[in-house]
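ingest -> validate -> predict -> emit
validate: passed (alphabet ok, no gaps, 305 aa)
predict: started
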Amino acid sequence: MNELANFLSTAIRLATPTLLAGLGIVFSERAGIVNIGTEGLMLIGALSGVMGSLLTGNVWLGALIAIIVTVAFAAVFAFFTVIIKADQTVIGTGMNLLASGLTITVNRAVFGANTSPPKIDTFRTTPIPLLSKIPYLGEIFFRHPVPIYLAFLLVPIAQFMMFRSNTGLKVRSVGENPKACDTVGINVTRTRFLAILYSGVMAGFAGAFVSMGQLSFFTEGMIAGGGFIALAAVVFGNYTPLGVMIASLVFGASNALMFRLQALSTGIPSQFPLMIPYIITIFSLCLVSRKSNKPAGSAIPYIKE
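emit:
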């Protein structure tokens, strides 16, 4: 039971960056924008958070700085895809390449290539009083850093905003039929632009959690496909916040299993456990491809006639 509790606790911790980023992507996707650049935005958030934490001495200020910097890059992505009407996949790929090169350059310029990393303030485990004392369940659910609690609390809020609010109705309508929305007075450009900025907020927070919650400093390429897995979680979750949470937990469990197999002397080649999250990603995408709620206007720039 202790091993199972430890495994499930690890799965929740590993699922959190995917969940945070996915809760942002689901709004941009519903608005008709495919944000392939989430991988790069998370990488920028990871480095910005570390630099902010080092500069201010406070992890939350570091996370705030990460969000602000990431939103600035998300605005660049939004400018090209929403205002200029450029191809979303091309711009997103360019954003990932830019983020990869930029973070490597800045990291080596600021911290050096071979020096030991300085100590920074990081997200610490914050047990919830009383609930954390419950046998097994306390260890699984109630002994985590604060961002993990926030991520799961955001799920019902995002679900309500998406399906029970006027804002969510506008976002979904813009993704399905932007021309009809424009006809009734809904500003398609503004709605899509703000949806991308929100996805930037969540990607920045997710990246900051990776570098300051799961690890304690920035390493080059540390997101390692996490942005693409977050995109897959949105598709697997059928474009709903609740579905994104379930998909994130599945991917988190697969990552936890990967680390467990690597730690055990199973005789399985080390490369095979590394494949597990991506195998599950491909399988899940094939599973839901025929009954997807993908918006009709997804990845299609809206050009007003």
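Residues 2-291 form a domain with the ABC transporter involved in vitamin B12 uptake, BtuC fold (CATH 1.10.3470).
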